[in-house]
Specification:
The chain has 121 residues and is α/β, with parallel strands linked by helices. The chain has one domain: Sandwich (Immunoglobulin-like), CATH 2.60.40. The chain has one helix at residues 2-16, and strands spanning 27-33, 36-37, 41-44, 49-54, 62-63, 80-82, 90-96, 105-110. The strands form 2 sheets. The chain has a 4-stranded mixed β-sheet, with no helix packed on it. It has a 4-stranded mixed β-sheet with strand order 3-8-7-5, with no helix packed on it. A hairpin with a 2-residue loop joins strand 1 (27-33) and strand 2 (36-37).
Length: 121
């Protein structure tokens, strides 16, 4: 009986692909804090997206002249903004429109389709 259950469970994992992301697009989080961005440069696979979280006590607003898809509305403390799917290859820079400090400047590289991102993305 145990052997039959083991075979059944193994088959279910293989049939589902054994994937932990359930086919969801890659989501790269970037926290906005009082000291700046949690990650100033990230690389994601094509079809991924960036998720900005305002972990600060003041408003922030992401703006990108190279990739307007990264633009966010004003993010109040505790708010977040999930960007759209990005198709690579693409190189984007962004900054906080409400804070001109260099610590709030960042970049996103979107790899060509089929190329993974970095840092687990």
């Amino acid at each position: 009986m145990r052997f039959a259950l083991l075979v059944l469970v193994s088959f279910a994992v293989v049939a589902c692909g054994g994937s932990s992301n359930n086919g969801s697009p890659t989501e790269a989080p970037i926290n906005l804090t009082s000291s700046g961005l949690s990650s100033s440069a990230i690389t994601i696979p094509s079809g991924g997206r960036v998720h900005f979280f305002n972990m600060d006590a003041v408003n922030h607003q992401i703006s990108s002249s190279t990739c307007p898809a990264l633009d966010t509305p004003v993010l109040a403390p505790g708010a977040d903004s999930l960007g759209p799917l990005l198709t690579g290859p693409l190189s984007c820079t962004f900054s906080d429109a409400l804070n001109s400090a260099p610590a709030f400047n960042g970049s996103v590289t979107v790899n060509a389709p089929g190329t993974p991102g970095s840092a687990g993305y």
